[in-house]
Amino acid sequence: MRYLPGILAMATIVVASNILVQFLYGQWLTLGAFTYPFAFLVTDLTNRLQGPRAARIVVVSGFVVGVICSLIGSQIIGEFGPLVSFRVALASGLAFLAAQLTDVTIFNRLRHRGGWWRAPLVSTLISASLDTMVFFTVAFAAALSFLEPGNDVTWANESLPLLGFGPALPLWMSLGAADWCVKIALAVIALLPFRAVVWRFSPRVA
Question: What is the DSSP string of 36-72?
């Protein structure tokens, strides 16, 4: 199956991110923040090498794997309840689909405009920002508590300086800001493997 490499790569990233998100890295991040952004690299490589239809198939496959991970996580009880709450599962699914499909659309529109780096960089910057905004807002914003009334997210809405030194904002905004910074940094770093893989398998379109 010609789409199998992309599907397997996306599935690996989604599963790894769902596991690593359980482990904190510093005050604002989890280890999952360093693996999940590479989902955009997989989507962009599939789009460049096999086209937008293939990229959408890979995205949907990743979404299905994410749903399975969420279902499994919802059955595992941790110190503060299920490892994956309904709001987190909903936020994760919505953010993934919205961001990845946006990435496919923007990349496809830019694939023949400007240098080789424009499509992967611009599409990832926009879609990664959308991903962060949707996930953290749906998962933790107090205004959306009606989505899961039994899930206490007051801890995420405690007012603290943004990233420890900015204006006082809900904690989840600091978590989102830190996550966004990692995504943006990795979007730039991922240009190197993107260029290398495209040049290896399709040098004429690089």
Answer: TTHHHHHHHHHHHHH-HHHHHHHHHHHHHHHHHHHHH
Question: How many alpha carbons fall within 13 Å on the CB side of residue 24?
Answer: 4
Which tens digit of pLDDT belongs to each residue from 53-102? 999 999 999 999 999 999 999 888 876 678 899 999 999 999 999 999 99
Secondary structure letter of residue 82 according to DSSP:
E
Does pTM top 0.90 for this prediction?
A: yes
Contact criterion met (CB below 8 Å) for 83 and 69: no
206: confidence class by pLDDT, cuts 50, 70, 90: very low
Q: Is the dihedral of CA 6, 11, 12, 16 positive or negative?
A: positive
For residue 80, give Cα distances in angstroms to 25, 76, 84: 19, 11, 10
In terms of DSSP H, where are the helices of 1-141? 4-20, 38-50, 52-74, 86-110, 118-140
Q: Which residues pair with 78 in a beta bridge?
A: 81
